[in-house]
Design goal:
With 299 residues, this protein is an all-alpha fold. It has a single domain, classed as Orthogonal Bundle (MetI-like fold), CATH 1.10.3720.10. Helices cover 74% and strands 0% of the residues. The chain is elongated and about 75 Å long. The protein starts with a helix and ends in a 7-residue tail after the last helix.
Length: 299
Amino acid sequence: MSEELKQQSLSHQEMGVVQIEHPFTEAARMFAANYAAVAGLLVLAIIIVVSLLGPFLYTVDPWEMVWSPFSPPGAKGFLLGTDYLGRDLVAQIIHGGRATIAVGCAAALLSVLIGITFGALSGFYRGWVEEILMRITEFFQVLPTLLFSMVLVALFGASLQMIAFAIGIVSWTGVARVTRAEFLKIRELEYVTASRSAGAKAPTLIFRVILPNALPPIVVQAALLVGFAILFEAGLSFLGLSDPNVVSWGAMMGNNRPFILQHSFTIMYPGLAIFITVLAISLVGDGLNDALNPKLRKR
């Protein structure tokens, strides 16, 4: 009888061990269970691969006038037709994906870096540091973002680097507030107090103790910022504030804007590319939110 009890106890212990999952493994499993998020990730991966490898497989020059203007989709072998100058729309969409996604990722990265810096310092030090940094954050939060970015691009040039900087400098306030809230919550927990009592310095506490545990909501915010930055870049390019030597989806829409009623397909296809990309990023962001949020996982 005692042997059976031992076996049952061992079996229960083994079951308990099996049920314990690493947080990353659990998050990956939760993300994989979200079919919409997985579909969004797959679509986003296809878009990135096509943008990177497409020019080597589809070698048509996006600037070359290959046929008569406004050739309809399918005419003379051009799958999506040609624009107002007779340039291949497929080649432009493939090449434009590089610039659009690069600007979106660079602007989101800049926003995250600024937001984490302001939010971490204000949430950790509190006092006058928090007052100063939060007042700066509020100043940028109430700025008209589109107008301010237009002024920056107009003053310093419409290069891709300047566009990414202009977008990043006006869209970091949300990350700062999320980071500050996480730091205010985590800095009072027992393991942070224990690290402080053990003699850990402020940089160690910020970057090695608190920040890794505050990353989940920041990662979600960063993913959504990429989609926001892509839309922002498309808006600036649509208004003519883009590098004229670079093809982007927003610039395609802006260049063909006068002909929207007569030849709507020249705007529809780049607009559809933006829509699908931003939708895929939003689905991935929602999936990350569900997977990384402990409350939604009922942990």
